[in-house]
Design goal:
The protein is mainly β and 106 residues long. The protein has two helices and eight strands. The chain has a four-stranded antiparallel beta sheet with strand order 1-8-6-3. A four-stranded antiparallel beta sheet has the order 5-4-2-7, with no helix packed on it.
Length: 106
């Protein structure tokens, strides 16, 4: 059930001034929590940017070699239950579905 306070997408933003070294995802990809999305380069270090929430990549407005400033948009991730739970298909095992499933021997 959706409430007015839920967000439909998460914005992934640069936390530092850096050069985009690698873009590891593309629009349409589905990523789980913790998936590496980008490698930023700053002060001779490589900084991975990980997905804080699972979902589908909606857009990636940066490319390798781009310089980003703190707060610049790197990607938008749309939330979906499949990416968050790791389940596949429309019959994803939600708590509601599991609680209504017949129990063996019942």
């Amino acid at each position: 059930m959706r409430t007015g306070t839920e967000r439909a997408a998460e914005e992934v933003r640069a936390e530092i001034v850096a050069v985009v070294g690698q873009v590891l995802v593309a629009a349409g990809d589905t990523v789980p929590v913790g998936e590496p999305l980008f490698i930023l380069e700053s002060m001779k270090m490589e900084i991975p940017v990980l997905a804080e929430n699972g979902g589908r990549i909606l857009r990636v407005p940066v490319a390798p070699g781009d310089t980003v400033q703190e707060g610049d948009l790197l990607a938008e991730i749309g939330f979906n239950r499949v990416a968050e739970t790791g389940a596949v298909g429309s019959d994803a095992a939600s708590p509601e579905r599991l609680s209504s499933a017949p129990r063996p021997g019942a």
